[in-house]
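call fold target=Enoyl-CoA hydratase
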Amino acid sequence: MTDRYADYQRLKFDWPSEGVLRVTMENPGRLNSADAVMHGELVRVWRDIDADPDVSAAIITGAGKAFSAGGDLDLVKEMTQDFETLSRVWKEARDLVYNVINCSKPVVSAMDGPAVGAGLVAGLLADVSIASRTARIIDGHTRLGVAAGDHAAIVWPLLCGMAKAKYYLMLCEPVSGEEAERIGLVSLTVDSDDLQDKALEVARKLANGSPSAVRWTKYALNNWLRMAGPTFDTSLALEFMGFNGPDVQEGLASLHGKRRPEFSKKSPL
């Protein structure tokens, strides 16, 4: 492992094939929920990957039977109480989206179990998104009490259409991996046991393809997302305004009191 990845704490790295870097989100006991450390690391890792000459393709996945169960509630609470934290996370949320979009290396996501929050940003913005049939994709913003920001406003309508995007984003309804493929939200679905093998198969094909052809095809297609920049900035502003409102306090209280057993105590769902 090169020195550029040595100081990461919540992201683990391995090379399952030549030219393929696998990034694994790992927050033990919390279903890989994104605390302050992981949130920051998910922002900067794409710049490191972009600059790494040894990487031809990357895989983003989660440790164990979860992709990522959303934002850590301690971080969410701190955002409601401290303006500096809120400002930092707002900037990170913006940079995370643009860093994934602008990373010149092709990215494959392998999503199993809950896929929520900052992890889901990378999962759905990946160039090829692969989910297990039983994955649970949820945009949890409105359940928390804030507008659906981050990636949601720009990529969900583009992937699955406005009607489906409004339904799932406004109601926070879970989308199974199988349903996500049917509506076009993800590229592929496979059985859980085949998820990592399929992700590696696709990453190898991308890594062995023409680097310039793959890179510029990605760049051109992602212009659809760049064109939505004003929509993204507005959605992000509306989301983070909500952290100063009463709905978040009610959302936090509700989430503390009503938890589904498949989600972590440190997850907002």
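return ok
The first helix runs from residue 36 to 51. The beta strands are 11-17, 20-25, 57-62, 68-69, 107-111, 114-116, 128-132, 136-138, 175-176, 188-190.
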